[in-house]
Structures are given as C-alpha cells and as structure tokens.
Design brief:
globular; 10 helices; two-stranded antiparallel ribbon
Length: about 325
C-alpha cells in the first residue's frame, strides 16, 4: 500500500494517513494541551506531515495550539486550515460567510494564530449559499497571488460545484466525510476528482470513533460531546449501526489487527490517491492508526466487507 501521495497538482508530498486536530480543542469531550502537543510532535517523528485544522475549531484555539506546537518545526509540516463557519465571542455559531472581505480577514487571522507566513492548503469549509462558488474561489485565488496561501481546497461540495470552482483556479484537494458508514462520495465525486487531478481527503474515516468499536452506548461519551446530539449516536442508531463494527471485527480478528486499522485500510484501498485524516489526541491511538499501512486486505476481504456491511446507516451524518 502506498504510504505517500502528491497533493493534487501541487509539489507537496503528503503521508496518506494525516492527523485531524479538531478534537484537540473541542467537540469530543475533555482535552489536554500538553498531551495534544506531545501527540503532534510524535506524529512528525513517525513521518506524519499532513495536519488538518480550521479557524472554527475551538473558535481559533486549535490554530493557536498548532502554532505553538509547530513553532520550530514548520519545515516538517504541511498544514491545512479552513474558513467560512463563523463563531461568536462565546463560541456560538453565527452561520456561513463566503464574502470576499470575510475571507481575506479570516485568512489574516489564521496566519496570525498559526504564526506562519503562508497556509499550505486553504479550504472553504462549507459554501455560503448566498455567494457563488466562482466569487469565493476568485477571492481564494487572490490570496494565492498574494503569497498568503499556497494551494486551495473545498469541503463538502458536489461534483458540479467542484468543476465550476476548478475552472476559476486549480483546486488541489476536496475534503469530505468518507468511511464504511459514509459512502456518499463514491462514484460522482471520486470520478470528478480523478478527472481533474484533485486529491480526495477523507475526514472521519473511523466514523467519529464508532467504527473502532470503542462506543458501545451513549454512556461511553462524555457530557458535552457533540456526538450525543448526532443522529447516528442515538440509542436506536447505535444498536443498528453496530452491524458495521461486527463486519470490521471479523476481518480484524482474522488478521490479528485492530478494528481501527481495518477501517482505515479499507478507505485507503479504495484508490491510491485517497488521503485520510483520522483525529486523535493520544499517542497510542496515533501509532495504532499508522499501523493500518501494514494491513493487507485481500480481494476476498474486500468482497466480504462489501457483502456483509449494511446498505444503509441509521441516522443522518449531521
């Protein structure tokens, strides 16, 4: 299995298992800054060079954390961050903005929090329905010309929007949720990415932790964990969705590996260009995830998974 890939048409060579950093500052229960920094440093030591954040994670706190962790190690890091989801002074969600003046301001603020001169990959987190994609990408292209951004990406858009965006300025990466229980990007988006030479970045490849088998009931989630309000984590949904975990577990036991490693290996096996960004705050989980590179899924394994996983997931993604 290929462990590295070139990011789109860029000159950036990334590790195909990167690190999603969102949970280090918000959403998934308690977190510890020192533990997170230790994990970020260990990731670099283990060969991970692709890190993912956004200005809305912790209302800027996540970018500040990465800026602190990478202060003397930027040469070892390819960093992606995002704009568009607005937060208020108390963390409240204020909607989306794709207005040019907002994008320019958001970029400057991200650069300041990160403490770096340029963002390697700058994503539109979600599209503001009030602003055409051509105007949004045009503004992002201006940031590239100014040297504030090296490459641009989009998150959670359809194939038509992706083509329109790419006609304005080359899109380097498309980030969308993808895992054994979130397979919507298959076909149209995969085909469009291949046609246009865009890297597909799969976020939540472990189903927000569910596909690892670690969440057997709502009691396994801390108070305040956003998954408690997610439709896939109701008691009823968990009871039905465990069927995904059972299939993964069957393969994992036959190979003597973990369920997380099988779930990640499955994503990476879909094509050689997919990159994943599983999130974790802990070193031992990071090491476990990277072990997915050593998992060889045979044609029979893939056929077994395809045959036995449920055709539908109980509960919407959001």
């Amino acid at each position: 299995m290929k462990q590295t890939a070139t990011l789109g048409h860029s000159t950036l060579n990334i590790n195909r298992i990167g690190l999603g950093c969102m949970g280090m500052s918000e959403f998934y229960g308690s977190f510890n800054e020192q533990e997170s920094i230790k994990t970020l440093h260990k990731a670099i030591d283990l060969g991970v060079n692709f890190f993912d954040t956004a200005d809305m994670y912790g209302s800027g706190a996540n970018e500040q954390l990465l800026g602190k962790a990478f202060k003397d190690r930027w040469d070892d890091v390819i960093l992606a961050t995002k704009f568009a989801i607005m937060r208020g002074p108390n963390g409240e969600f204020l909607g989306l903005s794709g207005k040019p003046e907002y994008i320019r301001k958001a970029c400057d603020q991200s650069l300041q929090r990160l403490g770096t001169e340029a963002i390697d990959l700058y994503y539109m987190h979600r599209q503001d329905p009030e602003v055409e994609i051509e105007e949004i990408v045009g503004t992002m292209a201006d940031l590239v010309k100014q040297g504030k951004v090296k490459y641009i990406g989009l998150s959670e858009v359809d194939s038509d929007t992706l083509r329109r965006a790419n006609a304005v300025h080359p899109i380097t990466a498309l980030q969308t949720e993808y895992s054994l229980w979130s397979r919507e990007p298959e076909q149209a988006l995969f085909d469009m990415c291949k046609e246009l030479g865009i890297t597909f970045v799969a976020y939540s490849p472990l189903g927000r932790g569910f596909l690892t088998g670690a969440i057997k009931s709502r009691a396994d989630l801390e108070e305040g964990d956003f998954r408690l309000s997610n439709p896939r984590f109701t008691d009823e949904a968990i009871k039905e969705n465990v069927k995904f975990v059972e299939v993964i577990d069957r393969i994992a036991q036959s190979k003597g590996v973990s369920k997380a490693q099988v779930a990640l290996a499955w994503v990476l096996n879909q094509n050689d260009e997919i990159t994943t960004i599983p999130g974790t705050r802990k070193v031992h989980r990071l090491e476990e995830n990277l072990g997915a590179f050593k998992v060889e899924l045979t044609g029979d394994d893939l056929a077994t998974i395809e045959e036995h996983v449920p055709s539908e997931t109980v509960g919407k993604r959001y």
